[in-house]
Amino acid sequence: MTCILRVNEMTYTQVDSSGLFAPESIFKLGPITFDMNEGETIAIIGNNGSGKTLTGKALAGAITPSSGSIEFLENNAENEANRHKHPIRMILQHSVDSMNPAVSIGSVFQNTLKLNTNLSEAQRQQKIEDTLVMVGLLREHYYYYRHMLSDGQQQRVALARALLLDPRIIVADEPFAALDPSVRSQTVNLILDLQKNLGLGFVFISHNIGIVRHVSDRVLVMDDGKIIEQGKTSEVFANPKQALTQKLVQAHFNLVERHFSLL
C-alpha cells in the first residue's frame, strides 16, 4: 500500500467568545496522529463538538494547526504532474450554499480553474463538462443555476467542485445528512465508484454509523478533541473498546432492529 497522507501530533486551539460579557470558550484539538493509504476511506465519528469538523478543516487547509504536521506524500514521478493540483479538497454538508445563486455552475467552476490552473478558456470548459459528467450530471448543467437543481444534483455539483482540481484526497463532512435515503444511496455508490476509478482517498466525517460501516476501511473515534479509538472499521465495530464507541455502535444496532421490527 502507498501512504499518501501522514498527520503527526497535529493540534489546534479554538477560542470563541459569544458576547462582550460572555466567558471565553477554549477548545483544544489533538494531538491527532494517523496516516492514509491511496484509495482508502477513513471515517471520523463522535458526538457533536468532539472535534471532527475541525480535524477535517485542518486537513483541507481551511484552518492552520497550532503545532504538528500534515504531510501529503507523492512519489517523484508525480511531483511535476501534480504541481498545480490541490491534493486535498473538502465537501461540506451545505457546500452548494456557498455558491452565488445569481451565477451559473459553469461560471463558478471557471473562476476556480482561472485562479488555480493555466488552462485556456476552451480547456477550462472541457474540464468542467467532463467533471460534471464524471459525477453523473449532464454537460448542459454547466449553464444551470443553483435553484434549478434538485438536492441530489446539488450534492453532485459540490462533489464535482471538489474534484475539479484533481485532488488525491476528499474530506467529506456530513455530505449526506440533508439527502433523502434513496438519493443518499445513489450518492454513496457514486463516491465508491469514483474512489475505485480514480484511486481517491476519502476522509468521511459522519454521524451515520450505517454508512460508515458500508464505505470506510478504518474508523477514528473522537471525543473532546482527541482520538480515543481507531482501527479497521469491521474490528472496531465488532469489538469496541471505549465506552463512547460502544454507545455509538449500540445506538446504531438498536435503530436497525427497530427498523426491521416495523416491517
UniProtKB/TrEMBL annotation:
Instruction: List localization entries.
Output: Cell inner membrane
SMART domains named among the record's database cross-references = AAA (SM00382)
Q: What is this protein called?
A: ATP-binding cassette domain-containing protein
Native source species:
Glaciecola petra
Name the membrane topology term. Peripheral membrane protein
> What's the chief localization of this chain?
membrane
Q: Which family does it belong to?
A: Belongs to the ABC transporter superfamily.
Domain named ABC transporter is located at 5-249
Single Gene Ontology MF annotation: ATP binding
Keyword Transport found:
yes
Give the record's keywords alphabetically.
ATP-binding, Cell inner membrane, Cell membrane, Membrane, Nucleotide-binding, Transport
A Pfam family of the record is ABC_tran
